[in-house]
TrEMBL record:
Organism: Rhizobium leguminosarum
Cited Pfam families: CT_C_D (PF02682)
InterPro entries given in the database record: CT_C_D (IPR003833), Cyclophilin-like_dom_sf (IPR029000), PxpB (IPR010016)
Domain Carboxyltransferase, first and last residues per copy: 22-220
Assigned keywords, A-Z: ATP-binding, Hydrolase, Nucleotide-binding, Protein kinase inhibitor
Name of the protein described by the UniProt record: KipI family sensor histidine kinase inhibitor
NCBIfam families xref list: 5-oxoprolinase subunit PxpB
Keyword Hydrolase: yes
Entry's Gene Ontology molecular function annotations: ATP binding; hydrolase activity; protein kinase inhibitor activity
Amino acid sequence: MIATTNRHASGREIVPATQSRARVSAIGARSFLLEAPGDFDLIAQRRIWALSQTVKGWTDLAENIPGMTNLLVIFKETPEDPDAVVARLLEAWENAQSINLNGKTIEIPVHYGGEHATDLPALCDLSGLSDREVVRIHHEATYRVFALGSAPGFGYLHGLDPRIYMPRKTVPSLKMPKGCVTIGGMQTGVAMLTGPNGWNSIGFASLQMFDPTSPTPALMAPGDTVRFLPARIEL
């Protein structure tokens, strides 16, 4: 939705989103979220990365946080005219040119199957594929880190083969171990913390992905490329 001023009303009106229009929503008094229109894909994410580079030059901005085909901007002070902020963001979006971040390549050894692959049977049932086919499809793909979030160091990875898409659970696992390699909808990732998790686990990675004592605590960064290497397959 796009929040705009209705000159004939005291409040705000909601303008329906279209496939071609970005959406801007107010998130509190100082924060605004721009969501890219269209499909969830690398093309939209590259424009989000470009928009993030643009707004970094805004002197009244405290922080900007790229998300999954969206960008959160937080101002230092509450804007006097929120509508002007919406218009400014939309103009910046329209002018944003696609960029490709030159990230590093990260290889993550994975123990597929075994005790941590608690959701692999359900994924096989849903996809109609064998467990071996699911594992092969997962590790043969190349993934891009779209954004970090959810937990310190957690990377949202794009590039999952549609044959192994799997919706998030309606009832999460209450204590999924840190390191589980998971699938959530159209994305895959590695659990950063032990705890409740609605994604579907198909394996385990012991690689340390986040070190709070390091100058660069998170192993992943937006734009990085990720490959999962089958260190062990236990089916």
